[in-house]
Amino acid sequence: MISGLCRVRVRYSDTDGMAVAHHSRHVNWMEVGRVELMRSAGMSYAQLEREGVSLPLVALTLRYRSAARFDDLVEIETTLDSYTRVRVAFTYTLTRVEDQVVLATGRTEHAAVDRELHPVRLPDQLRDLFGADQAYPYSGDPC
Amino acid sequence: MISGLCRVRVRYSDTDGMAVAHHSRHVNWMEVGRVELMRSAGMSYAQLEREGVSLPLVALTLRYRSAARFDDLVEIETTLDSYTRVRVAFTYTLTRVEDQVVLATGRTEHAAVDRELHPVRLPDQLRDLFGADQAYPYSGDPC
Amino acid sequence: MISGLCRVRVRYSDTDGMAVAHHSRHVNWMEVGRVELMRSAGMSYAQLEREGVSLPLVALTLRYRSAARFDDLVEIETTLDSYTRVRVAFTYTLTRVEDQVVLATGRTEHAAVDRELHPVRLPDQLRDLFGADQAYPYSGDPC
Amino acid sequence: MISGLCRVRVRYSDTDGMAVAHHSRHVNWMEVGRVELMRSAGMSYAQLEREGVSLPLVALTLRYRSAARFDDLVEIETTLDSYTRVRVAFTYTLTRVEDQVVLATGRTEHAAVDRELHPVRLPDQLRDLFGADQAYPYSGDPC
Known about the structure:
4 copies of one chain form a homotetramer. Chain A is an alpha+beta fold. In chain A, about 20% of the residues lie in helices and about 35% in strands. Strand 2 (about 55-65) of chain C pairs antiparallel with strand 2 of chain D, so a sheet runs across the interface.
């Protein structure tokens, strides 16, 4: 299986009235993580969409462990969990870089669809990339 | 158990590059639903926070069934699922008003905390309200 | 000129670490206001987009007067400011319903474009609707 | 005057139904830019808030020049525009890294306030940092 790392900073616009990152932001960070994993693996999500395939969510689970605060650096580890001809699932661990506290863990499940949102098969090239056994390091690029 | 209804419209800012509501918006709509349920039940979430108690998420699950599109009216049905002295869980069904298609179902689990995010007991008054058996109708007010 | 009213509630996800609505939300509320104005005038923005015309922003100005807080009801008054064959501008006043305090005023300027983001003329039908002299009341529907 | 650079990537959650970055995201990116400039200058915004001072927006202007698309790398140049004892203004230029196309330019004006949102003076230390004449390079860190 493949896995990858990227890092985001908690923005002020991510915080809520409790002065912590709002729980919906973790959903966006997991998206950032899988987009970066696909880029690392060799097929960016932008390229996949240009080929007419999108991967909307079918299911989402998140467990919140500790609050993220403004300006925290958050590392997102994304791991390919499983895939079939038409579906793919990822798991995520969000960790605060400073003290290595786990902020949240999650899982998303996706169906491959075309531009009209009809089910399609995952491109063979993508499934080949998914079949590798590789842990991609943090590129240092914004994500 | 108590349950309640409210309605939101899919805003343009909710849509993403697939021209459907981004999957993170359902998380915000579920929040809108439980805030409205608490208001209907007699203790608004704003009032709860003024008393020093917040209900951050511990866990979140979502199953996406059908895409919501710009301008769709979405009805959010929120149902109290269970509660203890220190935790509470809600379930949600999001339905497009026009054709009654279920867009998503979800569940959130919350811990009661004080302003320093330390665990506290749910106020007795809130647990009393939770103990009622009542289905609150849609108020017609913005939510 | 035409003008219209709609109402939104400040959601918890709209608040930031200062426990007030984040300044980017006013941008979304102005969008809600003009979408509602176009619906009231007789051509919804969804319909306009189905006909292949979008109205992306060219310019935005906002003056913040007073902070909006969680659960506040906000009334958005949107007024058509001016239009030409290819552009249109709106002004906005955001007011807290409870005490009629003005929260912010703003203005947006838009260019008509087709699906490839190339400039096009505003549909004649829309310009006819813009040419009316009408103040639309708050419909009571979610917006 | 001081100025600084940082870079963000257009996330999928930033896009809207036109498949471009929604116009409200530029507001968040400008916030990212000034937070990063303050960090570069020697007083992070998080530190400022810990000292009890916040800088909410009084005014915002944005001119949109070109659409940002999913996965674009965007460079944010933030420049201190002016400051008094109680106010500060910044200007921004958002540029796509790949082809150096200017996406938008903007300006924000801020008032210094305490935790109760009452006006206060800018800390002397901050005004000293603002008084420098320095162009800070892109740190390479997430922002």
